[in-house]
Amino acid sequence: MNNRTFTILSGYRSPRELGFETLHHEKIAIIGGTGLEPLLESPKQFKVRTPYGISPPILRGTFGNCSVVFLPRHGLKHEVPPHKINYRADMWSLKKIGVERVISTNAVGAINEKYSVGDLVIPSDIIDFTKSRITTFHDKAPVIHVDMTTPYCPELREFLSSSLKKLGQQHWSGGVIAATEGPRFETPAEIRMMRSVGCDIVGMTGAPEVFLARELEMCYAAIGFVSNMAAGIQSRLTVEEVVAAARQSTPIIRRVLEDSISSILKERKCSCSKALEHAKM
Known about the structure:
The protein has 281 residues and is of the alpha/beta class. It has a single domain (8-274), classed as Nucleoside phosphorylase domain (Rossmann fold, 3-Layer(aba) Sandwich). The chain has 5 helices and 13 strands. The protein has helices spanning 87-96, 154-166, 188-196, 209-215, 239-263, and strands spanning 8-9, 28-32, 41-50, 53-54, 58-63, 66-72, 101-110, 120-122, 125-128, 171-173, 176-179, 201-203, 219-229. Strands 1, 2, 3, 4, 5, 6, 7, 8, 9, 10, 11, 12 and 13 form a 13-stranded mixed β-sheet that branches. Strand 3 and strand 4 (53-54) form a beta hairpin. The radius of gyration is 18 Å and the shape is globular.
């Protein structure tokens, strides 16, 4: 398999029983879509069996001077639509292999008309408009109410923002992402509604990753690249323009990720690692 190995890992307990032994040494994961797989040098492939099913193929390798893992949320061939992604298996598998920090990349549409195609956005908040996705690991006793006052890790967001400034890349630090069900694009009326409640960008994979990461006490931040203006702002939306924008954005996203990851401090100073301390009823 092109110098790759395939392993299934098993032996799990419930989310609140700390059975999350470190099976590898990578502390940082990148979650992305098709086109970002070549990020890693000499990648090895494996899957993780979880209580929620088997994860998609995860790639482990070198990125810059760091050892990281890459999880293609849609699969290696982009065969899984956004509403069918097994988000719980994805996030559980990353926690199981020892990941502490997750950086997500997302194609987004711009609701805020100050934004332009090609801009990068580091969201600070999210509104979940999805309908059918399971958004928690805690659907049994004990009852857990995790705090989402700062959905995205402020420490990770700062690393990303600092890298973008250093590279001189046009970007927006802050803003609200609207997470929608997909796989269809939104209607103009839906976009007007999202704008009225303060959303700046819209995408189909923002939730529930961010919520599940917090429940697993992992740091999570996202970097969105604007692939199109949202419905009603431009006359028509096509998959071709999204794919073209993704290809154009990949080189700068690679540079941002490499610079950010190389700058990340070994010890976490944020509160993400203690998210469950006062969440249990």
